[in-house]
Amino acid sequence: MTKYQSIFRFKEPTSDYFRGLFTKDSAIDPDYHKLVDPEFVEPVKGTGKLEIPNFEDVTSLDAARIIFLSLKKAKQPVPFYFNDVGMWEWLSCIFHQAHPNSSIGHITRYSPSNQSGTWNRHLLRTPVWLYEMFQEDSKVYLAKPLHVGGDLIEPWCQTRSVIQKNMMGLLTKLYFDEETQALKKNFKAYTKPGNHRDLLSFIKQLRFTHKVEDMSVEDLLEILPERFDRWNPIRS
Amino acid sequence: MKKSIKLTNRKDIDKNNIILEGEKVSISDDLFYPVITKINLINENNFPEESNIFIRFQQDRQTRTFDCGTIANPITSLPADSFADFITDKIDIKATFNVQDSSTLKILGSNKGFKYIFIKADDGDFNDSTPQVAMSPFAMAFADTGTKLWEIGELDPSSRDVKIYFNEKINHREPIYKDPMIRNFILPTVLEKMISLLINEEGLRDEDTFSTWPGKLNYIIEKYFPDLEDMPDGESDETDKERFISNFINEFMARNRNALFNSALSRINEVFDND
User: Fold this and answer.
1) Which domain holds residue A74?
2) Nearest-CA distance from B98 to chain A in Å?
3) Residue A146 falls within a domain, yes or no?
4) In angstroms, what CA-CA distances link B208 with B158, B211, B224, B241?
5) If you average pLDDT over each of A75-79, A122-126, A193-197, which comes out highest?
6) With an 8 Å Cβ cutoff, is B110 touching chain A?
7) Which of A141, A167, A184 marks a domain boundary?
């Protein structure tokens, strides 16, 4: 367990040092002294203490909860910090251990992009955004290892209008296995109708003719076409 | 020929028939949130009076839906704190206006593409807002205009804007210069004078700065007529000059249809219905 008095931000965002940490095949590990050295970082005022577990299988839900609880102590509302690049880069560093080198991927997973198409790529900011809205119910999006982007998050989060409690409830009912606390197998099988991308297309169409915002999860399950039957608990 | 097939009976609402106006509330030097101060619909599609209205708003990553009454009794504004958490340094709230059948709850109509409330959309639909105010080649002021209710100030090409003076004896100052009916009456005449000077005075057509009204007008002309090759000049035939001026004014009024025409029509009805 590593403890920090607060969240910090890098004074110089997206430095070569930071890039080096998140470059594939780079053997550099963070210098944890540097992460609290006032020469390189400054505290994000008002944020609470952080306790980072030393395990590699930390989930996105765990990380979101830890960061959210710290940010919530600050004066500003949590979304105020979404564009603080230096802060999200610092947070990525303290969770560095959770990212196996083989799955490093694009830098926007660690250094937040503010472009609409890539906003959701950040492996910590998006979970905190979802956690801020849905708290522990956000498990359908976040019950996965932190280093995994998640096939469900990107398409669904890019369509802002479907980030609603009832939509999350629908996804949970269809694709989340309460027993294993993980997404069901094959929920993303692209070739088979009824996968989660198919559901997203259906919901987008439904919004043209229905006020989807007011529909309950039960109403939505009821209205789903036959191709979703294998997932639909009221039909299968 | 390209044909579009509609699979539902949903009607498209012309964005110019949707009136959504707002103001920005400052919470610090560079952070704001929006307030929606005016909501209305010109019911050109003849939706039944009892139909419900709901509006989907979106800004950055945030979305919010509001029930806004019925066609017969629309809610005319939203509570000031409705978007108090939509804090941003650049307000670009946009909306989809929906009319819903009161019994089946199906959507009868909505606008295609977003209705922008503060900033200009790609298709030229724009309302009064801060960015446009900064670009405006006009300014309103009060002065002694004798027995005239208004007059045009000096057309000095080095000025930021052309002043439209209202008679200082008018007591209702703000309502006068914001009134869409009055703006519709006045602006074509003012524009005619400005464009005419731009055409006839050599060199003004080359102004490309936003710090003078000729520069602002040149920018607007380029926006409205991107393929324009030859703008008339002082030597051109008078008919060509008149045609260009008329085309420009028509385009200006069409692009500002919501603020200058639809609102003016409502205002005229309001004024004379009370007579």
Assistant:
1) 1-141
2) 9
3) no
4) 12, 9, 16, 21
5) A122-126
6) yes
7) A141
Between chain A and chain B, the number of residue pairs with CB atoms below 8 A apart is 37
Asked whether the whole model's pTM tops 0.95, one would answer: no
A147 within domain boundaries: no
Whether A129 and A182 map to the same domain: the answer is no
A8 at B interface, C-beta within 8 A: no
* Ranges in chain B, pLDDT < 70: 1-7, 28-29, 119-135, 174, 210, 274-275
Counting residues of chain B whose pLDDT is more than 70, the rounded percentage is 89
* pLDDT tens string B185-211: 999 999 999 999 999 887 787 777 767
Q: Does A115 touch chain B (CB under 8 A)?
A: no
Is A156 an 8 Å CB contact of chain B?
A: no
Q: Are residues A165 and A123 in the same domain?
A: no
Residue B151 has a pLDDT of 93
Q: By three-state DSSP, how is residue A4 classified?
A: strand
- What 3-state DSSP class applies to B46? coil
Complex ipTM: 0.74
A148 within a domain of the structure (yes/no): no
Work out how many domains chain A is built from and give that number. 2
Residue B158 burial (10 A CB sphere; 0-12, 13-18, 19+): exposed
Q: Is residue A152 part of a domain?
A: no
Q: In whole angstroms, how far apart are CA A54 and each of A57, A95, B9?
A: 9, 9, 58
As beta bridge partners, residue B99 has B53, B109
Question: Which domains are assigned to chain B?
Answer: 11-118 (2.60.40), 132-273 (no CATH)
Give A28 to chain B, closest Cα distance, Å.
34
Q: Is A236 on the interface with B (CB under 8 A)?
A: no
CB contact under 8 A, B106 and A209: yes
Contact B77, B38 (CB under 8 A): yes
Q: Tell me whether residues A129 and B61 touch, CB distance under 8 A.
A: yes
Asked if B99 contacts B55 with a C-beta cutoff of 8 angstroms, the reply is no
Please indicate if any CB of chain A lies within 8 Å of the CB of B112: no
Q: Given A141, A170, A189, which residue is the final one in a domain?
A: A141
